[in-house]
Amino acid sequence: MSAARRKLLHMGVECDVKRKRLRFSGENIVNAADLQHYRRLLLAKRDELSATRDEAAALVPPAGDSEGDLMDRASADTEAELQVRVHQSDAHLVRAIDESLARIRRGTFGVCESCQQPISKARLEAVPWTRLCRECKERQHA
Ligand SMILES: [Zn+2]
Q1: Is the Cβ–Cβ distance between 99 and 132 less than 8 Å?
Q2: Domain 3-141 is of which CATH architecture?
Q3: Dihedral pair phi/psi, residue 111, rounded to 5°
Q4: Range 86-97 average pLDDT
Q5: Does pLDDT of 111 surpass 50?
Q6: For position 79, what pLDDT does the model report?
Q7: Disulfide engineering: 137 pairs with which of 1, 27, 123, 132, CB 3.0-4.6 Å?
Q8: How far is the CA of 104 from the centre of ligand 1 (A)?
Q9: Cα 127 to middle of ligand 1, angstroms
């Protein structure tokens, strides 16, 4: 092998190393200021969810209220059932948000749980409570 080729190969390796490091230290790395930003996003979303939950709770008539005719009670039941279903998906999201806040505290926020690669900032901005990068999320649904 010529010296020139050896040098080329060496450079190639160096480039690879740099590229790999770049994936972790480049644009995608979440710094302390970013963490604060995502934390605020998460807390705001959680507040928003608990606010809608309080509103919904106020709309649902208290259980055991047997006044009113059957028709009224039937529609009230349907409405209550609908609210319960809304609550369930909200609760799911609140749990995801709480887990993300815990990941911020542990320092593992912004890392895909499946492939351990950084999740893109664009994705974190849109869904800061996500546990998976876009590729893994898509694979999950494929
Ligand atoms: Zn992934």
Answers
A1: no
A2: Up-down Bundle (1.20)
A3: -110, 130
A4: 88
A5: yes
A6: 77
A7: 132
A8: 18
A9: 14
Note the pLDDT tens digit of each residue in 28-84: 678 999 999 999 999 999 999 988 777 777 776 665 555 556 667 677 777 777 777
Alpha-carbon gap, residue 85 to 108, rounded angstroms: 31
Q: What does the block give as tokens for 86?
A: 């809304």
Listed residue (93, 102, 103, 95) closest to 127, CA to CA = 93
**Could you tell me what percent of the chain has a pLDDT over 90?**
45
How many residues does this entry show for the chain? 142
CA of 47 to the centre of ligand 1 (A): 28
